[in-house]
Design goal:
Blueprint (H helix, E strand, L loop, with lengths): L1 H19 L10 E7 L5 H14 L3 E7 L15 H16 L3 E5 L7 E2 L9 E10 L11 E8 L2 E5 L15 E10 L14 E2 L5 H8 L3 H6 L4 E6 L13 H9 L7 H5 L6 H32 L3 E4 L8 H6 L3 E7 L17 H4 L4 H14 L5 E6 L9 H13 L4 E8 L28 H17 L6 E4 L2 H5 L17 H6 L2 H11 L4 E4 L1 H4 L3 E2 L5 E2 L5 E2 L1 E5 L3 E2 L1 H12 L4 E4 L5 E2 L6 H13 L4 E2 L3 H6 L13 E7 L2 E7 L7 E5 L6 E5 L6 E5 L5 E5 L5 E6 L14 E3 L3 E7 L8 E3 L17 E9 L10 E3 L2 E3 L1 E6 L2 E6 L5 E3 L8 E9 L3 H9 L31 E3 L3 E3 L2
Parallel strand pairs: 1-2, 1-14, 2-3, 3-10, 10-11, 11-12, 12-13, 13-14, 15-16, 15-20, 20-22, 21-23, 22-24
Antiparallel strand pairs: 4-9, 5-8, 6-7, 6-8, 17-18, 18-19, 25-26, 26-31, 27-30, 28-29, 28-31, 32-43, 33-34, 33-35, 35-41, 36-40, 36-43, 37-42, 38-39, 38-41
Length: about 900
């Protein structure tokens, strides 16, 4: 009995201890890049920052040390020094207490590099020197040479260190020698932190990475949860196009010696299909090296160390699908402004879309497709980078970007970014050179928990279920590698302006956009990822992760490998739905194929000649590919698979729909509509024609799933609108006593009065209004016209909450409104007018090293000449019943 009592006591104690164990950090809440200027962090500052982030609803932070602030040099912590490591350990301790996750870059700034990178391990490029020599004249290959190809009367002789008279064929008058030389790019780490300056690493060399990573082993062996992931930032290794193993790997992969064709590599422009094929073989070899010598070892080593790998593959010369698929969390990027067709949506007029491009959902899908094909649960995104100029971005501009990222398959958002700023540093504090700012100094910080709650609500569903795509579309990387080749050329696939060349202005870009606009959910697949597909008895394609696809479409392919051609031919013979859009493959992809291999390529092609179509509409219908007709109405969507059937995230990012009947391809008989902004749920019954009524104003979004039990069925009637007419004057008051109160006949921006032109803060619009007996029961939602930039609504003393995003509206609880009412609308503006004042007064707040501080066009930041930014409210108010 005594033993039993002791046992019971220990069980109860264990349960009590377990109950007190801190909950794990959240991945459904948004995370943010946490820039560390100079790594000049203190324990007080770390706690201050982390507590603020946790309170605001963040799930975690990603540490990236960068250059520091001038005047604080004595507080800089050299990267990976004992002091730096102590601060990092303190971060993990505090983050665990606050239930925050922590990721860190495997280095500082970007790309990977630093003082541990030796010259032999640094990024390299090549140059080819052309020498003309005559018979009998001796010469010596420069000591920097890695190879020398000698041509006599256009005939290759051999690789020589020196050329003798006897090497010339009879009658030859001379020779052209192409000398291949290795050089360092000498690229230094961009935005490096103190103590981490140095050369960028050779990303085509496994031994270079093995040398590089050793500097992190002591830190990581001492680290623990909540440290989760180690990260590689976007590939920006400029000019790197060579590694010492290139020639050997090239010959192994392609069956011939590239050194024989240095004359082709030396040309400023390829002049024939054969020369383009040689270049494509070169590009393919570089891509293979990047995957097998860096990305895969990067992910493998991180796993061995007990952590998770995150990687931004874009910007590299590899096949992005393969690179994203090689890591635990593939990460894409939403950079710049996009002109959403939402009434009232603002785009920064200073954003240069020609120089930087316009973000495209198709680019995002490269990362999410790789994850879907390989069963990765999380797809992350660097989000809102340079959405607008500093001090100008509002949350109303952020939400449509977030929705677009979700539509692209992302379910793990990272804000770019949140700079560490000491609590004692006066506003605007320490800032990163690129917007958008999500730290406590941000003008929208008080409203940010609302956005974070919205993201959390959406990502809980998006992370819970896999994407439900019916169609695979082949991504023709070989066509990119055959395009516009010439001396020193690589094909980096960044997601900015140059994506026009490799994505938008291509057949793949056309057909992927066509499928998207027509309402078909598509994932993209590479040559390598296709190898993992298995045919099913139903004549579908199944991945190792369990995803199933009904069809493979290949958009207008020009150059295709023998291996891929024979795989497609095999599938066609098995009766699988493989179809070519516009035309059949035109040519083999490699210069190194033998005649026998070329014959096999053409035999495979003949097997598939009946499988090309000019328009896929009929075959999509024949194979019952699910088409979402809501796309015709301008509604964007992503469909997920759940045990209860399909689940949808939809967003109205256009001005083509507001309300009306809609249909879902995989909807249930009864649907739950969940507004992730407000948390309000309703249930609708689907009609016999599979339609149901949807109210989704431009800018709104919704989560939809099937339900089995009916409750609170939505009843749809006529829309009733009740305009709000102020009784008497509208007063505008400010907490800043230096500003006088204003009076207006209607709602207008307070910046119409010059006394407010330097003001950043709150202003309260107040007035009385009346509603009659007919209007009262229909007044359920308050609508505002123009809000600059978010507003807290109080009616009759009741705080209804914050309106921060388009459409500017908020629900009014029953019982709040009466026949006679008083409304207070407290608006907070962005801080543009305040920073304009600081720059006019020449206050020295821009005191950072390296790039210091720039505007959205990468020019030195100066707000002194900015126009006054409109602030407050403008336009009409009204109530509606829905």
């Amino acid at each position: 009995m005594i033993k039993f009592r002791y046992l019971l006591f220990f069980i109860l104690v264990a349960k009590a201890v377990g109950a007190q164990t801190p909950a794990a950090f959240s991945t459904s809440k948004p995370w943010a890049y946490w820039w560390w200027p100079g790594s000049a962090v203190t324990e007080v500052g770390i706690t201050h920052n982390l507590e603020a982030f946790a309170k605001a609803g963040f799930g975690g932070l990603h540490i990236i040390p960068i250059y520091g602030a001038k005047g604080y040099e004595s507080t800089f912590q050299p990267y990976l020094s004992e002091g730096w490591n102590q601060k990092f350990a303190f971060v993990l301790k505090e983050a665990k207490r606050l239930h925050l996750g922590i990721d860190m870059t495997l280095g500082t700034g970007w790309p990977l590099g630093g003082p541990q990178v030796r010259k032999q391990d640094a990024a390299k490029s090549y140059k080819i020197e052309t020498i003309s020599i005559a018979p009998g004249k001796s010469w010596t290959v420069p000591k920097e040479a890695k190879a020398a190809s000698v041509y006599v009367n256009k005939v290759f002789v051999e690789d020589l260190v020196s050329l003798k008279k006897s090497s010339f064929p009879a009658g030859a008058e001379g020779a052209i020698v192409y000398v291949f030389m290795e050089t360092l790019t000498n690229q230094q780490v961009k935005r490096a932190a103190p103590g981490a300056e140095g050369l960028v690493m050779d990303h085509f060399s496994k031994s270079a990475f093995a040398q590089y990573r050793e500097a992190f082993v002591p830190l990581l062996k001492k680290s623990h949860a909540p440290l989760r992931a180690l990260y590689n930032d976007s590939y920006e290794v400029y000019g790197a196009n060579y590694t010492p193993d290139l020639f050997a790997e090239f010959q192994r992969m392609n069956g011939y010696d590239l050194r024989v064709y240095l004359d082709v590599m030396a040309k400023s422009k390829a002049e024939s299909d054969a020369e383009n094929a040689i270049w494509a073989d070169y590009h393919r070899t570089l891509a293979h090296l990047l995957l097998t010598e860096f990305t895969q070892p990067f992910a493998s080593w991180i796993k061995q160390m007990g952590f998770v790998s995150r990687d931004q593959a874009h910007g590299s010369p590899g096949n992005l699908l393969d690179l994203y698929a090689a890591v635990d969390i593939p990460e894409t990027e939403f950079f710049g402004s996009k002109p959403f067709d939402i009434p009232g949506y603002r785009v920064d007029p200073d954003y240069d879309s020609v120089r930087f491009g316009i973000p495209d959902v198709r680019n995002l899908k490269l990362a999410s497709s790789a994850a879907n094909l390989t069963g990765k649960k999380l797809v992350s995104s660097e989000t809102t980078t340079w959405l607008g100029n500093h001090f100008k971005v509002s949350l109303a501009q952020v939400k449509p970007v977030v929705d677009q990222v979700f539509i692209g398959g992302v379910n793990h958002i990272f804000y770019h970014g949140a700079t560490y700023s000491p609590p004692e540093v006066a506003w605007p504090g320490w800032l990163f050179y690129a917007s958008t700012n999500f730290n406590p100094q941000s003008h929208f910080w008080e409203a940010l928990p609302e956005l974070n709650r919205y993201v959390d609500n959406c990502q809980k569903m998006l992370q819970a279920h896999p994407t439900d795509a019916d169609v695979l579309m082949f991504f023709p990387m070989e066509d990119i590698w055959h395009e516009r080749n010439g001396k020193g050329k690589t094909h980096p696939l960044d997601l900015h302006a140059n994506s026009r060349d490799w994505m938008k202005n291509t057949s793949f870009g056309h057909w992927s956009e066509h499928m998207q606009n027509k309402g078909y959910q598509v994932d993209y697949v590479s040559d390598l990822l296709m190898k993992g597909l298995q045919p099913t008895p139903k004549r579908t394609f199944r991945t190792a992760a369990g995803a199933e696809y009904k069809m493979l479409l290949i958009p207008a392919p020009h150059f295709v490998s023998l291996e891929t051609m024979e795989l497609w031919a095999k599938w066609v013979k098995q009766g699988l739905p493989v179809y070519f859009l516009e035309h059949m493959p035109l040519q083999p992809n490699s210069f190194g194929l033998t005649d026998e291999q070329k014959d096999r390529w053409h035999i495979a092609r003949e097997t598939m000649v009946m499988r090309w179509v000019s328009d896929p509409t009929n075959i999509l219908e024949r194979y019952r590919i699910s088409r979402e007709s809501i796309a015709d109405q301008g509604i964007s969507f992503i469909r997920k698979r759940s045990p209860q059937g399909a689940a949808y995230f939809i967003s109205n990012l256009s001005n083509r729909f507001s309300e009306g009947p809609v249909r879902l391809a995989k909807g249930a008989a009864d649907l739950e509509l969940y507004d992730p902004m407000t948390g309000v749920k309703s249930v609708v019954h689907v009609n016999k024609d599979k339609s149901f009524f949807l109210n989704l104003a431009p800018g709104q979004s919704m989560l939809i799933r099937g339900v089995t039990t009916m409750s609170k069925v939505q009843v749809v009637g006529d829309k009733v609108i009740s305009p709000i007419e102020p009784l008497g004057k509208v007063s505008i008051s400010f907490p800043d006593k230096q500003l006088k109160s204003l009076v207006s006949d209607d709602l207008n921006y307070w910046t119409r009065d010059s006394s407010t032109h330097d003001y950043w803060g709150k202003g309260t619009y107040a007035f009385d209004f009346e509603l009659n007996a007919e209007q009262l029961p229909q007044a359920k939602i308050l609508h505002l016209d123009q809000v600059r930039d978010w507003v807290r609504v109080k009616i009759n003393g009741v705080d209804l909450g914050i309106v921060w995003s388009l459409p500017y509206q908020i629900q009014v609880p029953a019982g709040v409104l009466k026949t006679s009412n008083h409304i207070e609308l407290t608006v907070t503006n962005v801080s543009a007018n305040r920073i304009r004042k600081l720059d006019r007064d020449r206050v020295n707040w821009k005191n950072f090293y390296e790039i210091n501080f720039v505007d959205i066009q990468y020019k030195p930041f100066d707000a002194s000449s900015w126009d006054v930014t409109e602030s407050g409210l403008q336009g009409n108010l009204y109530f509606s019943n829905r």
